[in-house]
Amino acid sequence: MSTVLELRDLHVEFGPGRAAVRGVDLTLRRGEVLGLVGESGAGKTLTALAALGLPPRGATVRGSVRLLGTELVGLPARDLARLRGRRIAMVFQDPLAAFTPVHRIGDQIGEVMRLHERPRPTRRAARRRAVELLTELSVPEPERVARAYPHELSGGLRQRAMIAMAVAGRPDVIVADEPTSSLDVGVQAEILAALQDARAATGAALLLVSHDLGVIAGAADRVAVMYAGRVVETAPTDDLFRAPRMPYTVGLLAAVPRPDTAHALTQIPGAPPAPGERNEGCVFAPRCPVAGPECDSTVPVLRGVRPEGAPGHSVACLRPETTAARAAADLYPTSPPPQPRPRGPVTALRVTALRASYRTHRAVHHADLEVRRGETVALVGESGAGKSTTLDRIIALTAPESGRIEVLGQDTAALTRSGARRLRGRVQIVLQDSAASLDPRMTIARIIAEPMEARRTPRDLVAARTRELLTQVELDPRTAGRYPHQLSGGQRQRVALARALAVRPELLLLDEPVSALDVSVQAGIIALLRRLTSEPGSPACLLVSHDLAVVRQLADRVVVMHGGRTVESGTVDAVFGRPRHPYTRALLSAVPDPAPRAERSRPVRPLIPLQDVDLSTGCAFRGHCPVHRRLPAEHRLVCERDLPAPPATDGAACHFPHTDEGVSLRGRPAAKGHPPAQ
Amino acid sequence: MTRTLPRPPGALLGLVLIALLVLYAGVGPYVSPWSPTDVDYGALSEPPGAGHWFGTNRIGQDVFAQTARGLRKSLLIGVFVALAGTAFAALIGTCAGYFGGWTDRALTFLVDLFLVVPGFLVLVVVAPALRGAGWVAYAGALAALGWMLTARAVRTMALSLRERPYVAAARHMGVRPLRIVRRHILPHMTSFLITHATIATAGAVISEAGLSYFGFGVQPPDVSLGTLIADSTQVALTYPWMFFFPTGTLLCFVLAVNLVGDALRSALDPSAAPAEVPA
Amino acid sequence: MAGRALARITRSVTLLLVSVLVSYVIASVALSPRAYFEDRTPRPPASAVDHELAELGLDDGTPVLARFGHWSWRALHGDLGRTLDGGSVNAEFGRRVGVSVRLLLVGTVVGTGLGVLAGVWAAIRRGRLPDHAMTVLSFLVLSVPTFVLALLLKDGALSFNEGVGHTVIRYTGESTPGRGGTWPSRLADRASHLVLPAATVALGAIASYSRYQRAATLDVLAAGHLRTAQAKGLTPGRALLRHGLRVSLIPVVTFFSFGFLALFTGSVFVEQIFGWPGMGSWFLDAAQKGDVNSVVAVCLFAAVAVLLAGLLADALLLVLDPRVRR
Question: Is the domain of A15 the same as that of A38?
């Protein structure tokens, strides 16, 4: 296999001494998929951009980038432009921002052909070829997609169009920067499949940049782990996940929550150095459990871990032998898995037959859920499932359009204004984005005091309670005088939690509390949440999340929503272990699992919606349902005629629950003519 | 990042100029041997010299003292108009943006209405009626016709601030609306409002001068930079100092304020667009 | 989309009607046409003044709203009333409107066009000499009030003509009175009279548009889609041209209606200083005399012009940005 892209000692600096990428070596061979993984600030996106010669303004690139033997660093802009699109192409993270908003998708794809093909195709020919390319990549309705403007497409379709644009010049190298983040798990699987198809069609090598170890595990042949601007470990995917050697990698892998079981989670204490900090020694040494004195003075270089390691496995560590035989739990603080709890008798929150609109569009058709005191219930679903609107209606504490919401025993429709204000003190919410949910102009102390002040708590009590809360969320009491931007994401989310707990609420609403955080930080917050919700007297919790692995770690019970309806509810073990609704099964099967062997054997294929299904009667999931498609005609009639009853406390809104259990449900049937189970 | 870094030399120059001009307006009349109303019959239309630093006008008044007096009036009007206009704009804009609904619709219509009839025309029409009411009434009228664009900007800002998660969080906590406006909305607008008030000062001084130039502004015996420029226009080529000093003072002040305003904007409020066109 | 356009036009018409009402009321309350008649020598008897005012529909004994009702009924039939001198407002309007529209059109086209070009140029050369020069120049121009700019240009032209020895640059009127000749020579004459006033009006616009366009272009230069364009193989310059320019015009177009407002006000000064018989100088004259009908006619013109500029900005936005078409 020949090398197509080679980075040697690559540095990206913002001014002298402020290096964000500090000496990266990477080799990409023809046709392979190299996963570049790391947490935010690791420098992976900058590395990818530098590989295209597109560093952000104000950044300087040093070192070497060789593309098919041509040195790109220092190449004149005109020559670089000639290579881009034709030899190396890029798929960007946010396709809405990456497409020009005022040109049609088809024209933007066609432009690549018009730029690089000689003789130059006409505009019309390029547009036609764009449609052909979209068809080739099995994008649904290619004609419509090509005619559309970027804002008219869904996130998934936009990203597939972006992939089509990247392969339009038949490049040798595709660089994909976080191509699936910000997409739902189902769509994520689609995009990864599309990337693999595109790669197979062109024979290009793929540099896949992601923070998501599950995505990397499923898609990459080899993996390079970045930390604070350096590649700290690189290995064939299976070897890396089976036997990581760099202490950082060991900790990181053990910090990833898995959807199959509630398990112990490892936390890596501390935070990565800022660009320019720690220019000497190993960048990870301050957080490393096995660091020695030499780690502070000598910069480790990538070195093979043979003889005992696998071929191609190298690690930038001065003491790789210390991790050889030790598990993550020996190296890092690890929180034990939660214990199953019996269900309490008192209801804290009950939503019955809720119907709600978001702007002009009906977002929730029928939602049911119940949270008892002392338990954590998770509301899960993809974007557009109606979970945010449901949460919004609960926190509004007003009468819903239709249905009934009871908060702490009070019907919200019957609440007076002052009643609602009194109730507000007993219900608190933690929002997803901690940076945005804390007023940047207030100190932490004032932020935490705000709900207490709204309840007119005396000032001296507020100060004492603030100190107590900071300790409770494991923050230094000195944090009180600082401002939100001076804290890390994890610390900010702890502040948001402290604020919510300040008035000792009886019901706590958590809206995606960890999804904006890096894996190693997330593990700490999950551990904290586990502790705070299991103490005696802790509030009942409603956790809204799209992340099933996180839900598995935190919740006692799960309610699944799809298309504005509750489709299944039950205990975590029941729903994750033996899902009844076909949608739940599809959702679970799409979660990427950071265990490469298992990941590969699972055929992840998108749910393909049927076109032209009249959903005014019958089961609303029918248009996507793989079970329905394989039912005998008389059974199918049932799905078409009757809306399935909403799930009881434990159950699924499906006429044929459990059907097809154990069979691959996503997409292509495992065997033709599979007999229906019922 | 489109944030252009503040250019300290420009801002510094602007600050120094403003300080000098304020000093000139404040103590100028006291350091000059002549008061603005003194008439030196021995020196009619005399060019600048030792006796009269900026020369004299056709009736023998000292241009240095006259300019100081005119500048003082222009500054007073400018600062008053900027502060009053910005405060009013902040009130209207915040109410429209934060409370939304019918309040918003009514206030937006009001803003649009004020924009459709150019304020300058209205000022010209009402100026005669304000004669004799003193400069405060006149400045009030200027302020009443110059707040609309700021109000629009404030409204847009309040709309976006209202959707910020920390504002939502405060609402969910049961914090009362007025307290939310005071704690979470207004503090985030202060830098914007300060910048706007600064730039509005320049705009107000320009508007005042323009109106006074056509006789619709400050009335004799009061003088402002606008009336001084108007009186000397006819002789700008024959007795250039009479025209040059008031005009130069006006330009220096506006330029200085614009420099400081731009620096403030890039330092405090990188998202906003550059200066509005003053009339 | 048709519905939205209709709503937009309805709103504009409503604004127009209300603004005419407001300007009529303000003009009637603030102006005193009676003083104009009484100041004549010999001083006419009160009954004669009353009679003349009633003839013009300006009788101050009648309530303002009743006068407005009467005036607007006539106006709806295309008659804007009479001037204080007894002439037809319509005729005066007709004589003057072309003059103002010519100045406004040329000022707008030249001002926006050159301003946008200058802004793009400054943004591309950010931090280098052209950018600094543009910044300094636009600050200088923005710091000069329009009337001072007009005076300076006029005095400059005067000195220049004196220096050369004959009139090269015209600085009064919009055409040489009584000049006959073929139409090309008349056109050239008008053009030479147009240069200074149009330059005065346009300079301020160029300065402010160049600042806006520069900021918008810098925003686009940092946008993700421009990076994508380069990743596809476009050179930075062509990427800006094909993928950046149109996007950067979108925020500038929304500024257009406000920019026009400033330009309109500036044109009033310019007409007066350069002696153009347009709507602006009519207005100043009428306001001084207390000629309510003429003042309202100019306010009507201003409102129509500003609203048309707003509609034009909206239409341009629709053309430029597919995201607002829905």
Answer: yes
Res C112 pLDDT > 50? yes
Q: Are residues A377 and A303 in the same domain?
A: no
Angle between helices C89-124 and C183-221 (to 10 degrees): 40
Cα pseudo-dihedral A323, A325, A330, A331, rounded to 10: 0
Whether residue A174 is found in the same domain as residue A92: yes
Together in a domain, A88 and A8? yes
Output the CA torsion sign for A75, A78, A80, A82: negative
- Model pLDDT, residue B226: 81
Q: Which of C124, C218, C219, C228 is the mutation pick for testing A, counting most A CBs within 10 A?
A: C228
Cβ contacts below 8 Å, chain A against chain B, sum to 43
Which residue is associated with the tokens 């265990």? A595
C67-83 in b/e burial notation, b at 16+ Cβ within 10 A?
Answer: bbeebeeebeeeebbbb
Taking the whole predicted model, whether its pTM rises above 0.90 is answered as no
* B188-205 average pLDDT score: 86
Say if CB C65 and CB B161 are below 8 A apart.
Answer: no
Of B1, B165, B176, the CB nearest to A437: B165
Q: Determine the residue of chain A that is closest to C244 in CA distance.
A: A100
May I ask the CATH class of domain C13-324? mainly alpha
Hey, are the CB atoms on A438 and B173 less than 8 Å from each other?
Answer: no
Return the CATH number at A127: 3.40.50.300
Domain spans, chain C? 13-324
CA dist., res. B84 & res. B92, Å (int): 12
Phi and psi at A170, nearest 5°, equal 45, 60
Closest to B216 (Cα-Cα) out of B231, B206, B229, B227: B227
**Are residues A540 and A465 part of one domain?**
yes
Q: Domain segments of chain B: what residues?
A: 81-268
Same domain, A250 and A301: yes
State whether C233 and A112 contact (CB < 8 Å): yes
Least confident of A251-265, A596-610, C146-160, C301-315: A596-610
> What's the total number of domains in chain A?
4
Residue A631: band (very low, low, confident or very high) from pLDDT cuts 50, 70, 90: confident
Is the CB of B277 less than 8 angstroms away from the CB of C307? no
A501 lies in which domain range? 347-577
A411 - beta bridge partners?
Answer: A406
User: Is A678 inside a domain boundary?
Assistant: no
A window 97-156, beta carbon within 8 A of C? 97-103, 111-112, 115-116, 149, 151
Are the beta carbons of C227 and A98 separated by less than 8 Å?
A: yes
Cα Rg of chain B (Å, integer):
22
Reported in sequence order, the residue ranges of A205-244 that DSSP labels E, i.e. its strands, are 205-210, 222-227, 230-236
Which is nearest to C294 in space by CA: C97, C76, C4?
C97
Residues A286 and A372 in one domain: no
Which letter does DSSP use for residue C244 in this model? I
Mutation choice for C interface testing from A78, A88, A102 by most C CBs within 10 A: A102
CB A406 within 8 A of CB A350: yes
* Same-domain status, A565 and A589: no
Q: Do A100 and C225 make contact, defined as CB atoms within 8 angstroms?
A: yes
pLDDT, residue A670, reads 33
Range ranked top by mean pLDDT from A31-35, A515-519, B128-132, B185-189: A31-35
**In whole angstroms, what is the distance from residue C247 CA to residue A500 CA?**
42
**One CATH from 1.20.1560.10, 3.40.50.720, 3.10.350.10, 1.10.3720.10 for B81-268:** 1.10.3720.10
In a mutagenesis test of the A interface, which of B1, B166, B184 is the best target, namely the one with the most A β-carbons within 10 Å? Answer: B166
- In this predicted structure, the answer to whether residue B271 has a pLDDT above a threshold of 50 is no
* B118, B250, B273 member nearest C212 (Cβ): B273
Residue B168 sits at the chain A interface (C-beta within 8 Å):
yes
Determine the residue of chain A that is closest to B188 in CA distance. A441
